[in-house]
Amino acid sequence: MSKRTKFEKFGSIALGAVCVFLAFKLISEMGGSPVEAARGQETAAQPSAHSAQPPKSLSGQIGKLASADPGLEIQALKEYTARPLPENPRDPFDFGAAPAVRALRGAKGMVGGGFGAASTAPAPPQIPLRALGYSFRMGIGGEAYLADGEQVYVVHQGNLISKRYRILQITSAVVEVHDESSGQTVQLPIPEAQ
To answer: Cα 63–66–67 angle (5° rounding)?
Structure first.
């Protein structure tokens, strides 16, 4: 045999042994080693003195950590675990509605004007438009679908509806409409797709 074929033969045997070792290690870590599983079955059949005791507390677990890592600062860890969790103001089911939509949703629940004293000025007339939907078209950009009674409009930014309502901005969450006659600007929330 030539030196090269001997080297390739020994190399392939060594690589095969490493692969078998790694495969065995992976299997033993994922499902536990067969030896530990057999020991676990033997001990499960015998009643243990520890089975009647309640589970160890957090301080017992901290003690285990301290014995495993001498550099661990036990006092700092105990202070950290004793603190209550901070309040999380974020709603986990709110998937990023625009701030304007959240403000409109919050304003619906306010009674008597909300923050300050009730206003004595008469409220401006409401804009009769309501948003129905939103889409994005390549080359055109965002477009919104607005309804005024039975009439439905497909609008883009800058359009004028009924010679009165100018579309200032269109996003996937709101359509900002300016009433040219009263000077009122409103953000119409776009309903979420079902």
So the answer is: 90
